[in-house]
Amino acid sequence: MRLAVNRPDRTGRGEGAWDVLCQCGDPACEQWVELTLAEYEALQAAGAPILAPGHRRERRPPVRGRARRLAEDAGALWSRAGRRLRRVGRRLGESRRR
Ligand SMILES: [Zn+2]
Description:
Oligomer: single chain
Strand order of the largest sheet: 1-2-3
Bound molecules: zinc ion
Helix content: 40-55%
Order of helices and strands: EEEHH
Number of strands: 3
Structural class: alpha+beta
């Protein structure tokens, strides 16, 4: 999926125009925002989302939610690995006693 499309200059200001996909975080949103390169760069530099008129950034972007779920999965794997290691350790201790 392309997030930005460069278009030939229509402004007559020699800047050209960019169509940038709205970054409100709504998976159903397919609004394109028309920006000049200068506007686009200013928003990027400010770390501001590019939003279609009337759209608001969702408080929890889906990408961050997925990252947290991945971290929780990793935590579960680690505790499972820890239990398995302790079991192996006990078995090693038993075999040494024999
Ligand atoms: Zn949107």
